[in-house]
Design a protein that fits this description.
alpha/beta, Arc Repressor Mutant, subunit A, Rossmann fold, five-stranded parallel β-sheet, elongated
Length: about 280
């Protein structure tokens, strides 16, 4: 059975990390996959047998026997593909498709421009990101601080996060970029609700228009995430965040240019970089 054919069974399906282990095993052993019992697949993939059943149901089957029948149908109707991509190549190919989808969605840049105007006009400008989204928030915050005079990255939680939101609002914050990615931390959603109560407008950068973050956002920017490996790939959300930063620069070009020149002069004076 061609590896590309078998991976199409779960293309676009949101799988848990355990289910992805099963999927990766099936993709790597496409030729023999149809002959495995649920117990054999569980043992070879290093998961429990109930996990195999849940995996089959996640793909829309009543149970593993129905999935195995489908695997056998595919094995009988498709030739073996010796030059088919391996799982790593397939994951990267999926990210290329995600970037293409993002590019297509940016054909109308209106939402990005609206979000950029809101964020550029907020002082301080807030960037929220917790758990899996924390690195993205830090990345955005690092570059945003080069063109905005007061950027505050909020990547913690608990009552301290509430304090930070109240302090930022008192300091004049009017907008917050909220990076909220699966599996959607409860604290992030609660922070968005609290920000709205404080009068802070929310720009959500998330993976889907039906993300729970969208409920609290004035503007929702979406970019698909990769789910072909054990852990999510955030290539498209990262690209979208850089597009948004470009729009923030365009919303206040004189300020952005002045701050970039000031930083470059400071970097030379302090010899921050070696090249």
């Amino acid at each position: 059975m061609n590896k590309t054919v078998i991976t199409s069974l779960w293309d676009g399906v949101r799988l848990t990390p355990t289910q992805r282990r099963i999927a990766r095993y099936l993709a790597a052993n496409a030729v023999t996959a149809a002959a495995l019992s649920a117990a054999e697949l569980a043992e070879l993939a290093g998961v429990s047998q109930p996990s195999v059943t849940r995996f089959a149901m996640a793909l829309g089957h009543e149970g593993y026997p129905a999935l195995r029948r489908r695997l056998r149908e595919l094995a009988g109707s498709t030739p073996n593909g010796g030059d088919a991509p391996n799982p790593m190549q397939a994951a990267i190919a999926a990210e290329q498709r995600n970037l293409a989808r993002l590019s297509e969605s940016l054909g109308d840049p209106g939402a990005v421009g609206e979000a950029a105007a809101m964020l550029a006009g907020s002082a301080p400008m807030l960037v929220l990101g917790q758990r899996a989204a924390a690195p993205l928030a830090g990345y955005v915050g690092y570059f945003a601080s080069k063109v905005h005079p007061d950027v505050r990255v909020l990547d913690g939680g608990g009552s301290v996060l509430g304090d930070q939101l109240e302090q930022a609002r008192a300091a004049g914050a009017s907008a917050m970029l909220a990076c909220v990615l699966p599996r959607y931390p409860r604290e992030s959603i609660e922070a968005l609700a609290w920000a709205r109560q404080l009068g802070i407008s929310v720009v959500a950068l998330t993976d889907s228009p039906v993300s729970p973050a969208a409920e609290f956002a004035e503007v929702t920017l979406t970019a698909p995430i990769g789910t072909d490996l054990v852990f999510d790939l955030h290539t498209a959300p990262l690209a979208l965040s850089m597009v948004l930063l470009q729009a923030i620069c365009d919303a206040a070009p004189a300020r952005a240019q002045a701050r970039l020149e000031a930083f470059d002069a400071s970097a030379v004076r302090r010899q921050i970089f070696v090249a």
